[in-house]
Q: What sequence folds into this?
């Protein structure tokens, strides 16, 4: 492929493709919307509990990791369906492994959330007995 010169127009166009991908996933993928709602709830909870800067970093990275895994899983599923429309054990294996990446990232995000939020809830409940 021939190398082309830098073009702002091409860079802007690449962003529009990326935003279109987010729009497609947001409209078509139920699991992505579920993860997005969970992310919004976690962000609201984080604001209410006034988590630390480092806790914010962990939350933001966890949310991003889950959403990126969900995007990649969706892309892999679409490629697999394009390649082979009928049931195929190899395609199923590929899809299952991609889905496992989403599951693992979600479980890690849940664990990080529990590590951050449980102590805050416990300290709130222990203080409430004095009031």
A:
């Amino acid at each position: 492929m021939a190398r082309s010169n830098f073009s702002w127009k091409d860079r802007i166009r690449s962003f529009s493709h990326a935003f279109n991908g987010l729009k497609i996933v947001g409209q078509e993928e139920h699991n992505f919307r579920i993860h997005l709602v969970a992310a919004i709830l976690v962000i609201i909870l984080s604001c209410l509990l006034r988590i630390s800067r480092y806790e914010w970093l962990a939350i933001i990275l966890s949310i991003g990791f889950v959403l990126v895994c969900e995007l990649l899983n969706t892309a892999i599923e679409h490629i697999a369906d394009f390649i082979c429309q009928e049931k195929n054990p190899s395609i199923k294996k590929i899809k299952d492994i991609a889905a496992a990446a989403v599951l693992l990232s979600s479980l890690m995000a849940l664990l990080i959330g529990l590590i951050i939020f449980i102590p805050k809830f416990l300290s709130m409940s222990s203080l409430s007995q004095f009031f």
User: Anything to note?
Assistant: The chain is about 85% helix and 0% strand. The two ends are 71 Å apart (CA to CA). The mean pLDDT is 93. The helical segments are 8-28, 30-49, 53-83, 89-128.
